[in-house]
Amino acid sequence: MFRAASLLALSALAAPASPPIGDRWELAQLTIRQRTMVRVPRMAPPAPPRPVEWVEKKGPRCVPVGELAGALVSERDRLDLVLRGGKRVRALLEDDCRGLDFVRGFYLKPSADGMICADRDLIRTRYGTKCPIDGFRRLEVKR
C-alpha cells in the first residue's frame, strides 16, 4: 500500500498539471493493485504402488509388547504384527481363530517379562475366542 501511494505521489510531481478546462481543473484517480499469481503445472497422476509380497523367514520365539505398533489379519490362523520401525512379524495361531477377522482389535495379556511368546501366550479376540500362539515368523519384502 505504501509503495503504491509513493508511486502516485512521484507521478504527480513528475507530470505537468493538466491545463484547466474553463474554470476547473481536470482530476483523475489512479488505483494501483498488485496481484501475485503462481502457475502450477499439472502433473500426470502417479502410478499405483505395486502390491507388497512378503516372504516368511525364521522368526523369534518372543516379541516385546512395547515394540507393537499395530496388527493386520492375513488369514484366520495368521496375524501380522507391525513393530515400531516398520518391521513385521507373523504370529502363527494354533487353530482357526474365529472372530479375529471381523471384529476390530484383540487383546494380549503380556507376562511379567513384557514379552509375548509362542507356545506360552494367547490372543483373545473381542468376540471371546482364545487363540494360542504356535510360533512367530519374521516377514521380509520379496525381492
Automatic annotation (TrEMBL):
Check the UniProt entry and state the signal peptide residues, or none. 1-17
UniProt keywords, alphabetically = Signal
- The protein's superkingdom reads Bacteria
Q: What is this protein called?
A: Nuclease
- The species this protein belongs to is Sphingomonas lenta
